[in-house]
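Suppose a classmate hands you a notebook page containing two proteins, each written out with its sequence and a corresponding row of structure tokens. How would you begin to make sense of it? This section walks through that situation. The first entry is reproduced here exactly as it would appear on such a page.
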Amino acid sequence: MKLIKKVSAGVLLSFGSIFLMLTAVEILTYNQKPTPQEQQKAADTMIGGLIFGLPAVAYGGWLVWSLRKQHQKLLSDRLQSTFYRLLEEKSGTISVLSFAKEAQISGEEAKQYLDVKAKEFNATFDVNPQGGVYYHFHI
């Protein structure tokens, strides 16, 4: 389903962009049309380009947006489940390195996530002599 959404979004954005570019070209060259018939043809082309281009681009953009939101939700769920699992396994003490390794994220992302959770749960932290940060959550 995800692959179908990605392909659909790409096709819709591509075709919609082509129609909108055609409309833009007609708008830019409209006053250069010498006869009324050519101007009418250009006006029809502009209207058709907008009718087909705008909905295609809008729906393709919405598909991209929904895929992005779905990805963010999956990432958030994965981080949360990793966080709670480590809390149970480590008796409430988590290091930035172990969380980053388990969650497969960068150290900076792990530190930011743990800082937010520490504020949320009123946790404390220690820094060992080697510079490692350990968060102590009271469970």
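The notebook's second entry, a different protein, reads as follows.
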Amino acid sequence: MNVNLNKYRGKRICVAVSGGKDSMALLHYLNANKSEYGVILTALNCDHGIRGESSIKDSAFVKKECERLGVPLVSFVWQTEQKRTENAARQWRLNCYKKALNADKNGWEGADVIATAHHANDNAETVLFNLARGASLSGVKGISDSEILDENSVSLSIVRPLIACTRGEIDEYVKQNDVKFVVDESNFTEDYTRNKIRLKVIPEIENAVGGAVKNIYRFSRLAAEDEEYFSRQVNKILKTETPFGYKILKCDESVIFKRAAVKIIAGYKLKDYTAEQLDRLYSLQYNAVGKKFEFLGLTAICERDGVFVCKSCDLHFNFQSVSVSDYLKEGKTEICGQELIITLNGDVKSDKKVLTFDYEKLPQNAVVRFYQSGDKFKKFGGGTKSLGDFFTDKKIPHAVRKRLPLIAVDSQILCVCGVEICDDIKVTKDTKITGNIIF
């Protein structure tokens, strides 16, 4: 088999083993080559319980084989009252992966990566399936090593050592090495779209064009390279503008601009966008400043340097000023759908921006409010200017300016939450009581 283990050298690899031919071949191959590559090998088995007694027997087989090979195994059984949907099963499986990656006090050493037995035929199946559904370039890059996020946005490293191997090559390896395996009868039913592609479409393509699976694999790798290039270009023009939205900087290349727009839409967990909506978003950057386009519950606004996109509901709010002392009593308050936290002392860990200030320098009559005409701000390090000019310097979109919480005394702004504190309340070596503003 054409397996490149060099990139996994010295890693702790935990193989996801179902008992089927592919996963048993992967387990056998890694076990046979672990010493050469300095791999520490473990295995995991996830019993979804969907096939009843067959699932139980398969898990028992995996346990027996791992004991025979001397590979440590951790097993999981899905015990749930919820409906066993495909998505629910996937999330449960990812949670199993996460547990297997982490060491525990029962002697389980954990792992660096989870290895699955996806191979070139699986890759071809995925590419053809996505093509048939009308996927873009990102949909035909196929299967590769990747970082997958679970439901809590925790990154899991998944590797596919067999991805360049064809079904035939794996079958030959299993035969030559007398690898034991069990048969999942559900793989041979045509009740699922992917099974139809696996059982009917791919064999016909291979008969028509010899080596089609390997050629599709090479195509998917080229597509993945192109997709990585486009992603780098998108990241150059896509900016996060405070907690309220995103900015797409002006870009004449429609393919790059539209990809940035799709990334924003996906970030809001929306799917049903149309080509016409993407065209309108692209054209919006050439309209008059302030021109709006509403779609899918989002509002896009033309700015001088691009297009700002946010939730439409975030543009409508009613908030009266509140004293900072009241905030300290409450600990946190929600403003325009975003949480503003003001605390005293202590180290604060947050994925949001944390601004630390000298509490004793904060006037007692300071309030939390929004932007007003005539507001002035003394920048960190000195130099006073109008708040509007400060916003311009920071390239903060006009749509966001009146939505950023401010800590103020009359027209003097002491903090632009999530952006910067005023020089007057900065922490020095003489500071005794610190405060933290998180937004």
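A careful reader of the second entry would note: Residues 212-237 form the longest helix (26 residues).
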